[in-house]
Design goal:
about 15% strand, globular, alpha/beta, about 140 residues
């Protein structure tokens, strides 16, 4: 049985969505990935573009709230908060046996040209990938 991992962020639009896609793509043989936010919004198009550069399609993912997953009875083994706000507001998930936290910059907050925004999303995407390699690349948590 695969270890179920939930990535939580504030709006479930960028960081948690990219983390879900990255874990599924690189470690999907061992992990089942989910993402949610303290509030559901929509998947950021820059996140979709940044992931497409790696050949990972997250355009079919949708933004979900943590409450929605709880109401659906989704069970997870590991909860990973990817921003400080979500860490403070994140609900306790029944059955979760491990909680991890790594705060990443919010790339959606970066202002500037299209290229400057893309650079922010690429940077955060690559930081998330490095974190996933460290946290999930070896033995299952």
């Amino acid at each position: 049985m695969k270890t179920r991992v939930l990535f939580l962020c504030t709006h479930n639009s960028a960081r948690s969505q990219m983390a879900e896609g990255l874990l599924r793509h690189y470690y999907g043989d061992r992990f089942e990935a989910y993402s949610a936010g303290t509030v559901a919004t929509s998947v950021n198009p820059y996140a979709v573009r940044a992931m497409a550069e790696l050949g990972i399609d997250i355009s079919g993912q949708r933004s979900k709230s943590a409450v929605e997953l709880l109401e659906q009875g989704v069970e997870v083994d590991v909860v990973v908060t990817v921003c400080d706000r979500a860490r403070g507001e994140c609900p306790t998930f029944p059955g979760a046996r491990r909680y991890l936290h790594r705060a990443f910059e919010d790339p959606a907050a970066v202002e500037g040209s299209d290229e400057e925004k893309m650079e922010a999303f690429r940077r955060v995407r690559d930081q998330i990938k490095a974190f996933l390699d460290e946290a999930f690349g070896g033995e299952a948590p």
